[in-house]
Amino acid sequence: MKHILILVLFLGKCLAYDPLIKNDNSLLEPVALTVLDKKRDREIPVLLYPVAKLAPVILFSHGLGGSRYNSPYLARHWQARGYHCVFIQHPGSDESVWKDKSKIFRLGALKGAASLKNYLLRVHDVVALLNQLEIWSKEQGHIFFKRLNLGKIGMTGHSFGAVTTQAVSGQSAMGGRISSFDPRIKAALAMSPSIPKYGNPESAFGSVSIPWMLMTGTHDVAIIGATDVKDRLAVFEALPVGDKYELVLHDAEHSAFSDRALPGENKPRNPNHHRVILALSTAFWDTYLKGDLNARKWLTGNGPVQVLEKMDRWQIK
Q1: Angstrom distance (rounded) from CA 266 to CA 186
Q2: Residue of 71, 247, 245, 97 whose CA lies nearest to 158
Q3: Tens digits of per-residue pLDDT, 101-126?
Q4: Quick one: 143 exposed, middle or buried, by C-beta within 10 A (0-12, 13-18, 19+)?
Q5: 47, 123, 125, 302: least CB-packed within 10 angstroms?
Q6: Coil, helix or strand at residue 304
Q7: Under a CB-based contact definition with an 8 Å cutoff, are residues 137 and 150 in contact?
Q8: Using the 8-state DSSP alphabet, how is residue 269 labeled?
Q9: Residue 161, H or E segment
Q10: In a domain, 15, yes or no
Q11: What range defines the domain where residue 125 resides?
Q12: Alpha-carbon distance 78 to 106, whole Å?
């Protein structure tokens, strides 16, 4: 009887942590604002998903041609887990690139927007937003006044947003001589990551010092850019050992991490993909932004297999 009781208690502790439960009751309605970067005379639209308490912050950067309104399934879940979520919109590589153009010109416009210029604009957008968060947290009457835990900031994004995330979270260029890393970012999640066009992955990612999680799929190929699945997997291979994670979803196409299928994709969308994305990302944030030991045990133990399907791949180093 004593052994049964011990087993029940042990199982109870193991099952106590569930990253899919939405357990926060301090949610507030989304708020659309604009960050003005005076140095560049640039307006950066953002969508805030706040909670009514002091909490960590997650920043999200959309893919090419997207907007701050993309991927609300991520924002709503993380917000309900007790995070302030700030979704950034990057003028020049956002929906304005294609919205007013006829269908025959949209692809060309999007290809033109996938440029070094927009890459640099995006990187500086993140820095400007981080600076603005510091201002808002001290601005009496603002929804973020005294509510932002600016010592616990996570950065994430999909596709071009993953490129943006990598840049500000530790990836370097020119053989490791140039870096846009912002030390205010404490953990990063890149969905559909990619290696740099120039240089080798080892020099680009070998000095990443903060926790990284990468997510991709076995059919994660975009219609713009030359990045194939092999290149996406090369990012994890080049990362140093320590708090690094990789998820590869079986049969997942490029849009698996977003809200809807993209032109040219033809595989049925798997509802479990979003479930896995939410579970693993939440456990990652809880581990590194909240210091939740139960989340770490779940993430590094048998937790992921509870949500993964048989052909999905998961690894840690």
Answers
A1: 37
A2: 71
A3: 888 888 898 899 889 999 999 999 99
A4: middle
A5: 302
A6: helix
A7: yes
A8: P
A9: helix 160-168
A10: no
A11: 22-316
A12: 32
Residue 13: inside a domain: no
State residue 176's pLDDT score: 64
- Give the whole-angstrom CA distance, residue 88 versus residue 69: 9
Which amino acid is residue 220, in one-letter code?
D
Residue 298 within any structural domain of the chain: yes
Which residues of the chain have a pLDDT value below 70? 1-15, 174-177
Instruction: Tally DSSP H helices, then E strands, for the chain.
Output: 9, 11
Q: Which residue has the tokens 């932002």?
A: 148
Report pLDDT digits (tens) over 10-21.
Answer: 444 445 899 999
Q: Tokens 């969905």 correspond to what residue?
A: 191
What is the DSSP secondary structure assignment for residue 242, as one 8-state letter? S
- The three-state secondary structure class of 232 is helix
Q: Rounded distance, CA 155 to CA 244, Å?
A: 15
Number of structural domains (the chain) is: 1
Provide the token pair at 301.
């133990």
Please answer whether residues 88 and 289 qualify as being in contact, where contact means their C-beta atoms are separated by less than 8 angstroms: no
d(CA 79, CA 85): 6
At 301, which CATH number?
3.40.50.1820
67, two tokens: 């907007």
DSSP for 179-225 reads E---TTEEEEEEES----SSS-HHHHHTT--S-EEEEEEEE---SSS
Owner of token pair 């490791």: 176
Q: How far apart are CA 80 and CA 75, in angstroms?
A: 8
* Predicted pLDDT at 34: 98
**CB neighbourhood size of 142 (10 A):** 16
